[in-house]
Design goal:
The chain is α/β, with parallel strands linked by helices. It contains six helices and eight strands. The protein has a six-stranded parallel β-sheet. Strand 5, helix 4 and strand 6 form a beta-alpha-beta unit.
Length: 214
């Protein structure tokens, strides 16, 4: 049985290469079930901002909550943002390049981006995205007023929400706020912080979610 192909969307101020490294334990945990492929967000980030990364490498982001400063803050309420359209176009190109895709996995801002893609795909937008499920790690709702429509309809895309009870960047209650957007969301909680959990204890939760798509 061929492994599922999953497109991975990194966190703010990470890139595909750094996220691949940070998910090494997950790739090992699910090496028989999933072929993870990685991409870079299209927007370069200036140094000196808080991040989901370690301060090294190629810093990228999916959109900016402060367009003038070209910065992002998950807790910032804003009327306007910038960069989302370019990111949707970049994901479309990555999906074409890595087709066929079975699923999408996002971390932090990448998880918020993945939820937006689910909403756009279900709205009938011509995106040519074939993914059948989403894994959202430390996800959240965008607080930009222009993005509120993404959460107005119940999404049918099967979803697994991974929530760190000790996450100090995207608190657990913020991640849980994304659950009502999806029909019958599955939840994997772990006691740790802002990372993708991949201990042996988590293997069955991932497998139970993935088995219906194999």
């Amino acid at each position: 049985m061929a492994p599922l192909r999953v497109l991975c969307l990194h966190g703010y101020r990470q890139d595909g290469a750094s996220f691949r490294e940070k998910t090494g334990a997950l790739r090992k945990l699910l090496k028989k079930e999933v072929d993870f492929v990685y991409m870079d967000a299209p927007h370069a980030i200036e140094q000196g901002q808080d991040s989901d990364g370690d301060g090294a490498g190629n810093r990228r982001g999916w959109w900016f909550s402060d367009p003038a400063a070209r910065t992002f803050d998950a807790g910032r309420h804003c009327e306007e943002s910038s960069g989302l359209d370019e990111s949707v176009a970049a994901v479309r190109e990555a999906a074409r390049r890595h087709a066929p895709l079975d699923g999408i996995l996002g971390f932090s801002q990448g998880a918020a981006m993945a939820a937006v893609l689910c909403a756009l795909r279900e709205s009938g937008a011509e995106l040519d995205l074939t993914f059948r499920f989403a894994i959202l790690v430390a996800g959240f709702r965008s607080r930009c007023a222009r993005h509120l429509d993404f959460y107005s309809a119940l999404l049918e895309t099967p979803s697994l929400h991974v929530i760190g009870l000790g996450d100090g960047v995207i608190p657990a209650d913020v991640s849980r706020d994304l659950l009502p957007v999806f029909r019958d969301p599955r939840v994997l909680t772990h006691p740790g912080g802002h990372f993708v959990p991949a201990a042996a204890a988590h293997r069955q939760s991932y497998r139970d979610f993935l088995e219906r798509f194999q």
